[in-house]
Amino acid sequence: MSTTPAPRATVVDRLDVDHPLFSVEFFPPKDAAGEAQLWGAIRRLEPLDPAFVSVTYGAGGTSRDRTIRTTERIASDTTLVPMAHLTAVAHSRAELRHVIGSYAAAGVRNVLAVRGDPPGDPLGDWTPHPDGLTYADELVTMVRSLGDFCVGVAAFPYGHPRSVDADTDFEHLVAKIRAGADFAITQLFLEPGGFLRLRDRLDAAGCHVPLLPGIMPLTTVRTLHRGPELSGAPLPEDLVARLDRFADDPVAFRAAGMDATAELCEKLLAEGVRGLHFYTLNRSPATVELVGRLGLAAARS
Question: Which sequence positions are flagged as catalytic?
Answer without folding.
Answer: 25
